[in-house]
Amino acid sequence: MWAAAYLIGGGCSDDSFIDFRAGVIALGREWYERVLVSPDGLADQPAVRQAAAEEDDGALFAESVN
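RE: above sequence
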């Protein structure tokens, strides 16, 4: 999961990973469990796809959720 955060965010510190994890949890149980099994599944997540199209490397890094 950290590798997915690293790729999505263009890097990932310990603090960033905590924010990323919060963002994945905020997607809901279904996405959380899906990502635990296969982090590559985030490539199908609409918010991640939109962020990639907009070159937004902050997708799913939800510090405010913590």
